[in-house]
Amino acid sequence: MFWPFNHFSKSRSGSDRTIGTIYGMIVARAREPGFYEVFGVPDTVDGRFDLLVLHLWMVLRRLRAGGQTQLAQGLFDHFCNDMDANLREMGVGDLTVPKRMQKFGEAFYGRSTAYDAAMEAGHEALAQALCKNVLNGKKLEEARRLASYVEATLADLSARDEADFISGKWQFAPIPAPVQ
Question: Is pLDDT at 1 greater than 60 in this prediction?
C-alpha cells in the first residue's frame, strides 16, 4: 500500500499552505449537504468521516498518478494530524488517542484498498464498495449514483493541469442535482 500510517511525522511536501488548502477543500466537500440529500449518505459523524476518506482517497489517487508522492504523504499526514487534534478536542484521553488513530488508519487503508480494487473491477464493484463503506450496506441505487459521482470526479481531477492541481488552484466540480 502507500503512505505509512505515522501521524507524528512532519510534512515533507515543503508547502504546508498548499497542503492545508487542498485538505481544506476536501473537508469542505465532505460537509456539503448534497451528499446527504442527493446520495443518502447518513448525516452522522461516521457518514462525514466516510466522505472525508472518500475525497481524500480520490485526491491522493490523483497525486499518486502524477508522481506527487511527497505532496501525497504531506496531505495524508495532515489528515492524521487533523484526526488526532479532533479526538483531543472531543476530550479523548492521551492513552486512548493512539488506539483511535489506529482505527482511523485501518479504516482509511481498508477503504482505499477496496476503492482501488473496485475501480479496476468497474462501476458496479465501485457501487458495492461505496454501499458497504459509505451507506452502511443499504441504498444500492444511491450507491450507484455515488459511484457515478466518484468516477466523474476522478476524471475531472485527472484532467486538471498538473501545476494548478499540486498548487491547490482548483475546485471540485459541482455535486449533481437530486434525481427527481
Answer: no
Q: Which residues contact 3 (CB under 8 A, 6 or more apart)?
A: 60, 72, 73, 76
Q: How far apart are CA 43 and CA 14, in angstroms?
A: 35
Distance separating alpha carbons of residues 4 and 9, to the nearest angstrom: 10
- Output Rg (C-alpha) for the chain, integer angstroms: 16
Question: Alpha helices of the chain — where are they, by DSSP H?
Answer: 16-30, 34-37, 45-65, 69-89, 97-121, 123-133, 140-159, 162-167
Nine-digit cell at 124? 458496479
Q: Does the model's pTM come out above 0.90?
A: no
List pLDDT tens digits, range 98-147: 677 677 777 888 899 999 999 999 999 999 999 999 998 889 999 999 99
Q: Which residue has the cell 472525508?
A: 52
